[in-house]
């Protein structure tokens, strides 16, 4: 065997071992009742099913045509440039937006990034929407717009409540853990070095936002290995826009293509030339905003 094949084989064995460990060690929270702590004003705190406070920003527009829920990615928050830019698109088109800091992230909500995973992100979004349904400004159907892990949560909600969702924008969603196992035998060492560089970018972002446990992303990777968005994608009957960077190695375009093919409704995949997993600023963010705005004009 060549050196690259041996290394890839070893990585495959390691991935299986880590997946097994993750399945044995994952801890489920005991849900509690959702509570509203501060129902007045445009920024509120609500308590999720796990008893943690979630900071929520409500950006209303006059004569609102509807709502759009915005969900940030792993280690991010509701003030990220990509989330603010996306929310502005919906605001400009007459939609009020709901942005929130997921728990166990870097924003104003409670929790520790060390315990972030797809389940906590998903449940936070579900709890935010459950709370929103009690508010006088609530409108249905609504849009969901998520980035990375926020896109995973958005897709999960849309799959479970398709009649409530007018349209879904999923940016760089991680599609299925098992696809990474398959990729082990397709990528060479140089590719995997780039994967680790993009993961390190997540680490550095979290460090810059003051999180002291940002190195504990291994449980997140184990968590990602458990889910598969493709399995229930046929329930996505609403219009869907998927956007991904051409050079995204954390949520590769070929994975997005598999998700696209499984969706039963009107779905479109846009690949941003030379983009990676992050749409933080510059031309890639500009391209993303343009594509989403063009899609929103006709959906």
UniProtKB/TrEMBL annotation:
InterPro entries: AB_hydrolase_fold (IPR029058), Hydrolase_4 (IPR022742), MAG_DAG_Lipase (IPR051044). The keyword Transcription does not apply. The keyword Protein biosynthesis does not apply. Residues 64-196 form the Serine aminopeptidase S33 domain. Keywords: Membrane, Transmembrane, Transmembrane helix. The chain crosses the membrane at residues 9-29. It comes from the Bacteria. PANTHER family: PHOSPHOLIPASE-RELATED. This is Serine aminopeptidase S33 domain-containing protein. It comes from candidate division Kazan bacterium. The lineage of its organism: Bacteria, Bacteria division Kazan-3B-28.
């Amino acid at each position: 065997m060549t050196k690259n094949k041996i290394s890839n084989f070893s990585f495959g064995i390691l991935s299986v071992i880590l997946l097994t460990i993750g399945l044995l060690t994952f801890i489920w929270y005991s849900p509690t009742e959702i509570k509203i702590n501060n129902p007045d004003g445009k920024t509120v705190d609500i308590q999720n099913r796990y008893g943690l406070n979630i900071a929520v920003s409500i950006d209303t527009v006059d004569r609102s045509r509807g709502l759009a829920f915005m969900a940030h990615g792993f280690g991010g928050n509701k003030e990220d440039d990509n989330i603010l830019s996306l929310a502005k698109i919906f605001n400009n088109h007459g939609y009020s937006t709901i942005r929130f800091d997921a728990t166990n992230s870097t924003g104003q909500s409670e929790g520790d990034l060390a315990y972030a995973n797809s389940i906590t992100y998903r449940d936070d979004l579900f709890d935010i929407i459950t709370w929103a349904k009690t508010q006088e400004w609530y409108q249905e159907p609504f849009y969901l717009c998520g980035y990375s892990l926020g896109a995973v949560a958005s897709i999960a909600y849309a799959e479970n409540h398709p009649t409530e969702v007018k349209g879904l924008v999923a940016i760089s969603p991680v599609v299925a853990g098992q696809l990474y196992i398959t990729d082990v035998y397709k990528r060479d060492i140089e590719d995997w070095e780039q994967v680790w560089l993009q993961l390190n970018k997540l680490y550095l972002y979290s460090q810059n936002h003051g999180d002291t446990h940002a190195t504990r992303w291994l449980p997140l990777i184990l968590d990602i290995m458990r889910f598969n968005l493709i399995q229930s994608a046929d329930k996505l009957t609403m219009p869907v826009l998927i956007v991904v960077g051409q050079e995204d190695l954390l949520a590769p375009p070929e994975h997005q293509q598999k998700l696209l093919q499984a969706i039963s409704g009107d779905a479109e995949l846009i690949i941003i030339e030379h983009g990676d997993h992050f749409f933080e600023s510059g031309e890639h963010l500009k391209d993303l905003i343009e594509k989403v705005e063009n899609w929103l004009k006709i959906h």
